[in-house]
Amino acid sequence: MSDQAQNLRRVLEHKDRESPKKTRVISVVSGKGGVGKSNFSVNAGIGLAQKGYKTALFDLDIGMANVDILLGLQTSGDIVDMIENDRSIWDIMETGPGGLHIAAGGSGLNDIFEMTPEKKERFSRQMAMLDGVFDYILFDMGAGADRDSFHFILSSHEVIIVTTPEPTSITDAYAVIKHLHLRAPDLGCSILVNRSETSKEGKQTGENLQRAAKRFLKKDVDLLAALPQDKHVLQAVKKQEPFLLAFPYTPASKALQTCLERVAGRKNAESDTGSYKQFIGRLKEFLLKGGGR
Ligand SMILES: Nc1ncnc2c1ncn2[C@@H]1O[C@H](COP(=O)(O)OP(=O)(O)O)[C@@H](O)[C@H]1O
Ligand SMILES: [Mg+2]
What CDD domains does the record point to (predicted)? Predict the structure, then answer.
């Protein structure tokens, strides 16, 4: 194990031996690509870490993994490495900006979800080692939810569906909600509208989607937040820095902070949405047997 991994393990294990964390696993998904999932995941992770929550981000958009690029991070390992070369999860996780712990995606594997049973077992075993370590684990997923990636999403405690106000993005987001609802009616879903021109547009987009889910699926979907279109997001991407740290007082950062208050408030309010062990149980069930929730 590298020095970095040993340090990380020590940091993570030290304080929590007596009070293990009740981890909430949140998948960030969308129907359409390029709607802002990775930027949201990275900055939300940093914001939660800044609030004192121990937070990890897993880049599960394997093949198109880019969290390390967004953060300008040189990583010494990644999820593909962990699966292919049987490396420890402690070895591949890096401490990124703002104290966010990062598992980069890596390349060379087109689809993490087409793993052999042995590799799936490896993956679940490594994930199980994180029991009690984090307050939040965020999964930054690829677009769409029709592959096996679906299993990771369905195993989570909660799903955030990101959409922009574009009609194509909204219809794709609805399709994802429907898909998830049919497989896991009890899975908590919330909508994040990104890149809205005005707060009114953001609210209306979210409410329309919410209404459609209620009317056609009888599903209650929470409207988490609307983040504005903000030129500082692209500027931060170009600088390979998270916008929350590079431009903390701009509209996107301010809206994200309000959004995170809600996310954190929810964790405190809903302390009983299933344990980490239940998450691991579902993940194994899905990955190894194709069953589950
Ligand atoms: N709130 C925003 N305001 C302006 N541009 C944004 C915003 N969110 C995302 N973007 C732009 O969209 C691009 C794609 O975002 P990304 O997070 O990579 O999407 P995804 O992970 O869904 O594919 C970013 O590089 C950025 O330029
Ligand atoms: Mg992405």
Answer: FlhG-like
